[in-house]
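Re-run with default settings, no changes from the original entry. Doing this only to confirm the output is reproducible before filing.
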Amino acid sequence: MRTPRFSTVVASAATVALAPMLLAQGLRVRRTTPRLPGADGPVTGGADGGLALLVLGESTVDGVGAPDHESALTGSVAAALAERTGRPVRWQALGKTGASARVVRAELLPKAARADLVVIALGVNDTTGLRSGAAFRRDLLRLGVGVRRRLGPVPVVLAGVPPMGRFPALPQPLRVVLGLRSGVLASAAAELSAVPGVRYVPMPAAMLDPATFAADGFHPGPAAYRIWGGQLAEAALLLVTR
């Protein structure tokens, strides 16, 4: 079994050895990949009188790949929670395309309303920003501390770091290198499940079928968001009902 340390060394070595090619491929991907907008419509929704859900994160929380937040990640989690509990869910989506964990803590968390449950979806921008596993884990921990200072002792679900080695838009060897680096961040984030009231949930394999991606080959489409939302809701209920 590969240890996190081994994976970190391999990812770092591959990044350095292939740096010129990776830079060229990255620039080409940025130039040729369709730039999809965030979800349209309000960033809050649902009904009062039940569970209050807050989702924080990067472009997936901004709803890129879906027409509105109802069919993006936040709405999908809320719908799955409502279906499984029979209770209304009031939701708030605070996402920013291009955001890292540090940006979410500094810019989005101060906008958070009251919540009974928080879902955090991050990792792609920290991967492409070459953030180390240790630094990413520290950033997530600080974000989690900030969440609880603002909202109280709420349960926190950490959505799995997307495995970028499965992104159709990325050419090789950029895909394999970013896949290694995202795996390092996923292992680091998973360690935070040791914190009481926090659970890390790896991204479900079913939403990594190329057919479930949006037109840019980089973000989930509505079908993938539904799968992801259902998985995160199941994990959240284990924390909420304890």
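The radius of gyration is 17 Å. The longest strand covers residues 51-57.
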